[in-house]
Amino acid sequence: MLRRLFLGLLTLLWLLPAEFAAAHHILGRPSYSLNEDSNTPPSIQGEVQIGDFDVTFMIYPAFPKPEEPGRVSLYVKRLDDGAPYEGKVTFDARLDSLTGAGRGVVKLGVQPPDDNVFRQAFQFHDTGDYIVTARFESNGEPYVIDIPLRVGAPPGMGPIGWMVAVVLVFLLGVALVQRRRAMTGRVREQHADGGGA
Questions:
Q1: pTM of the entire structure?
Q2: How far apart are CA 137 and CA 143, in angstroms?
Q3: How many CA atoms lie within 13 A of 158 on its CB side?
């Protein structure tokens, strides 16, 4: 009887902590405020000082893919007092390649500040290198920030890689021709030496 009571008490103590396993916070953040960008790093993050402003930008998700939504987050504050920019920011995009030169600029949108952050969604249909341009104006002076963006997997070899490969193949060809000439010269010398004896 004492043994059953002890096993029952041990089972109860063992199951007791299972009730508290349903926590809704992760590192102090409520789980209901988490989304797909919360735990992933940005694909690009940068900071630039332009005129009277300090601009920080981030692009989500970490690896943008064609036909999937992404987002640019832009933080703009004054250099002198750190006050956030209160105006609107216009976002445009263009394909950054020789083949995309004729496609022109696509207007993504105009965004007001949302908790001192300018958030612009995007979704590109094609794989490639893009330039996202953020524009705003302060005291009649325009400010333009170009942000590079890669959508999809990068190509196996870019133009520089192809140029290096062509140069290496050319040098290898020259080396093989020179070696063959040297071998032919040695064979002729041996025949000339052997034929005269």
A1: 0.60
A2: 6
A3: 7
